[in-house]
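Key result, reporting period 2: structure in, sequence out.
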């Protein structure tokens, strides 16, 4: 489905070029390379120690970081809908309608899904120390900037859950591995829906999420592979690098 309000080009890189926050990295490929080749860790390092809890093992680290990621996801979708969330910063929610009625349905479903994910993760008796998440100014001031942020967030969420699956499987924690895999599948759906709203054609644009098989640039494989984050700290740093302030 194409949104009647979508930019004529529909491509993420062209949306990013018109959003001030993303102008220094004006293409999707360049943006993701910055995040995933070390730029994220550098940009997020200053605030990382304040929000990354010291936990007993790497699997628990991933579960705790996922609590933070889900709170960010809830805040994002609530802000985009204009209703906010318990995790939203004052003044962040959109004050204008950014989505048509069909796409608002997409986002309301995503809000509900992220809320359920958070409850499941909290049932593991893990937590994340930050409870309020402030997005960069004007993230929800226009449809283009909101969608650009959503696409970036979902890419990081997917990479974080892929890392959690790998780490939990390696440590023999089957429950966390299964929970992370099931949640990751829904985050992939969110990314495809955002791609659809932006007019990316096709919105289901990759054969694999990670680098199991090299990208081919064939139809259905034109999107960038998600990076499997090696540590929870790497995933948190990538989120902070988007300019999100956690408190």
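The corresponding designed sequence is given below.
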């Amino acid at each position: 489905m194409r949104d009647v309000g979508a930019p004529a080009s529909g491509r993420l890189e062209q949306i990013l070029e018109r959003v001030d926050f993303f102008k220094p990295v004006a293409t999707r490929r360049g943006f993701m390379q910055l995040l995933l080749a070390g730029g994220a860790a550098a940009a997020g390092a200053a605030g990382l120690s304040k929000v990354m809890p010291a936990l007993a093992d790497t699997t628990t680290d991933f579960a705790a970081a996922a609590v933070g990621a889900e709170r960010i996801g809830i805040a994002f979708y609530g802000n985009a809908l204009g209703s906010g969330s318990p995790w939203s910063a004052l003044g962040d929610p959109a004050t204008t309608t950014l989505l048509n009625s069909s796409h608002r349905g997409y986002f309301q479903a995503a809000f509900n899904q992220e809320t359920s994910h958070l409850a499941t993760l909290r049932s593991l008796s893990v937590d994340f120390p930050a409870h309020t998440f402030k997005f960069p100014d004007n993230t929800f001031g226009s449809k283009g900037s909101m969608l650009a942020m959503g696409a970036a967030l979902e890419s990081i969420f997917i990479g974080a859950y892929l890392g959690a699956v790998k780490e939990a499987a390696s440590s023999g924690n089957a429950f966390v591995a299964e929970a992370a895999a099931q949640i990751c599948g829904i985050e992939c759906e969110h990314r495809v829906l955002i791609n659809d709203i932006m007019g990316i054609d096709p919105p289901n644009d990759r054969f694999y999420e990670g680098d199991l098989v090299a990208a081919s640039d064939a139809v259905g494989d034109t999107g960038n592979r998600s990076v499997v984050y090696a540590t929870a700290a790497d995933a948190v740093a990538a989120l902070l690098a988007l300019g999100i302030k956690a408190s």
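The first strand starts at residue 133 and ends at 134. Residues 12-246 form one domain. This case is discussed further under Risks and Mitigation.
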